[in-house]
Amino acid sequence: MTQAQLIAHYFSDSDNNIDMEIQPSIDNETIERKKQNRRKWIPLCTYSDKNDVIKKINDDGIWSKTHTNITNEGKRTYYRCNQVKLHGKPCPASIHVLYHSENECVTISNMQIIQNENQAKTYTRNIRKKSLHVPKKQQLSSYLISLRKKYYGASTISLDELDAWCQRNSLIPDDDDKSWVLKYQIEYEDEINKDDDNKNKFRFFVTARRLLFNARSPCFIIGTTDMITQFHPFGFTVCSNEKQNEFEFIFSCLRDDLLNLNLQMNEQELILITDDAEVISNAFLKIILKKWKNEDKFLRYFSNEWLNAKNGWFEGLATHAPSTNYALEATNRVIKDEDTLRERLVLSRFTVVLYSIVNKWSKERNPTLINSKKFKHQPLITHYQYGLMHTTGLSLTKMLYRFFMGTQHCIIYLLVKKLESQIKKSNDMKIAGLIHLARTSLFTSIYGA
């Protein structure tokens, strides 16, 4: 019977890890980062007339406007206490005014600072408020530990247990939204590998069947972007390191294992968008060019003409492809804020959270739901409409505003009106022809061909 080997704590090879809770100082000592106090807004009162709110703020005489944010709920205007200097030690008193978007009401809220405390003290104080029996801190802490173990499992996991977990979850489910392990690799110290160290390695890719339906699209960042640059993830990969072997594992999952679902990726239109890391691009090239390794002449031609000469970063390099990976970073922020709650989880418990994340991604893209995140195969503005915009001089901001506030018919209608106003000033037959084309496009978009 093999001896269980515990997985060491994971540390990234990247130098840009900004989420660490401790920072090394000059003297090689560790300084704990002080946690900031949380803020909570408490509604004070609601007015039906905004003039009453402005009058109240002016009568108080202690508030100064700082900034304004536009949200889905309405416009929020923030005020600070002006009894202290602006650049001195700030006063904790603050209010904000919410102008509701759905009605004419205006709400004033006051800021309450919540001091950071451990969970045991917080629960004890809440139990005391309800006049219940207060257990000892050690009893409450032990209960929380047992409850966390019940829902998330043990806090430590061995490589053998991780291997068994991957095997149990490797079967392809019938449900399109159920999470499963697409592929995994586990290497022990005594196994031969190509790395420069002899430590244990593990890699596994968790996905759902529905998420892989978009894997045939041309642009992916462990996910893909549609024609309006919305990000759609393929799945979630967990690796013990960030070297070339790990990224080769990710790309091989997408290329080889998609055949099990009768899906095939269009390798002729692939576009790789990543940060400035050579290990990612080298792994991508190695996997994509693997099937051409016996064709040396073609391989040299393809590498020189299509890989070395077709790499860069500028607008227009790839049509309908984003210039940055901001959409991916936004998805990463949602994971930290909503799923892990900014907590550094151990691997054994993160696997439980991981399954719920992938399952949520898949259900959000279920086409039977009303507000599902659909994959857009057509851009919002076509090349024909973009050309008409430049011909007529219609502002792009106005076009986009009209498009999002209404339908595509509004764009064509605005173009027709703009052209008609121009042809009255000059009898240009070219503009007359554009009016005819725009009217035909408007009629076809409304009533069909």
TrEMBL record:
- Record protein name field: MULE transposase domain-containing protein
- Species this protein is from: Rotaria socialis
